[in-house]
Amino acid sequence: MRRTPPCTSAAASDRLPLASLLALAMAAFITILTEALPAGLLPQMAQGLGVTEAWVGQTVTIYAGGSLAAAIPLTAATQGVRRRPLLLAAIAGFVVANTVTTFSGSFALTMVARFLAGVSAGLMWALLAGYAARMVPDHQKGRAIAVAMVGTPLALSLGVPAGTFFGNLVGWRMCFGIMSALALALMLWVRVVVPDFAGQAAGRRLSPGRVFTLAGVRPVLFVVLAFVLAHNILYTYIAPFLAASGMEGRTDLALLVFGVASLLGIWIVGALIDGHLRALTLASTGVFGLSALALGVAGDAPAVVLAAVAAWGLAFGGAATLFQTALARTAGDAADVAQSMLVTAWNTAIAGGGIVGGVLLERLGVGAFAPALLVLLLAALLVVWGARRHGFPPPVDAAGGGEEAAVSVSPCDPAGADAACRAGRSASPDRGRAAASPG
């Protein structure tokens, strides 16, 4: 029987390697849930560790600190390491950190474990987008990144409430034990189905400083900083904002609306991103701005507030995917180092949101939130609009549905393991995965 070459099968070439991408999504889910879980377990953890709830809150702060400290230097230092062992090492960090947290009776030891988890998170976020992009041809990179990132809104909208529920049911230590078990199972999943790729050859590696000067990188990072700062000013202080709007005690409802809308947002982005990255980024920023305007003008009407929160969630849901895809396309072979800069910008904005929002709340009240958000989002919108050549380019291939892409990261393994992929990118993802995996 004559076999049809993989390059002749359009259906095969258009099929995403879902098993591999969903493993990355699970990694994102574990990363976010490990970070946010203490926020829903403050009383139980405080009692178990013999400290105040305010001190337990610092377990989230030190997690972010680990990510900030490690993301850029660790990613730059591991550019030459094969990707799958590096991914497994990052997941193993969560196994160790969550296991220590499960059994720790010392607050100091718990803080050390949380810092280690943050270091693993910094490396994980730097890896995920570039890893997903390398599994597929250019015209599918955005969709692949969207699938890999779906674990983030799922963790925020479903995982954290579920963790809080189980924490009340079986205790906070069991929750972290379950996280360790999930991470251990994920290591097996990754080892079986996720393809391996070579690290960068020494002659092709760029320093973080050189990556920062690549055309388009700085505009994307600025947009990340402004957009996420605006988000976190409101998200961090959503409870006092709602109380001032006459919705005290309805924070759970508002966050549920936000979470559901964010899931819809990432679905829309995943479906359209490969042909409409620029338009989606402009729309996302604009919709967030309109929601901020509505909150500022009619923030005392509960129906308007909930509608604005839904629009905000819709805009934010796919934002990470938009920014990561834009940066991956812009940075090309240096995508992982560029993504580590995105991690740093994102975590800086998270910390900045708490600081700026706190100052605004203390000195001017929640009424100052909407104007501050509008200034930040207008700046982001103008930068996206101006970054037509590099960063957020318009579509250039209407027939193929693709956008201008600067990605030179090939889904092929430079070490030569994937012969079918070297022969042509139309080989099916499943064949590429099997060939790229050593042994």
Automatic annotation (TrEMBL):
The chain crosses the membrane at residues 54-74, 86-109, 115-133, 145-164, 170-190, 211-233, 253-273, 280-298, 304-328, 340-360, 366-385. It is a multi-pass membrane protein. Residues 20-391 form the Major facilitator superfamily (MFS) profile domain. GO terms for cellular component: plasma membrane. GO terms for molecular function: transmembrane transporter activity. Residues 420-439 are annotated as: Disordered. It is found in: Cell membrane. InterPro entries: MFS (IPR011701), MFS_dom (IPR020846), MFS_Efflux_Transporters (IPR050189), MFS_trans_sf (IPR036259). Keywords: Cell membrane, Membrane, Plasmid, Transmembrane, Transmembrane helix. CDD domains: MFS_NepI_like. The keyword Ubl conjugation does not apply. This is MFS transporter. The lineage of its organism: Bacteria, Pseudomonadati, Pseudomonadota, Alphaproteobacteria, Rhodospirillales.
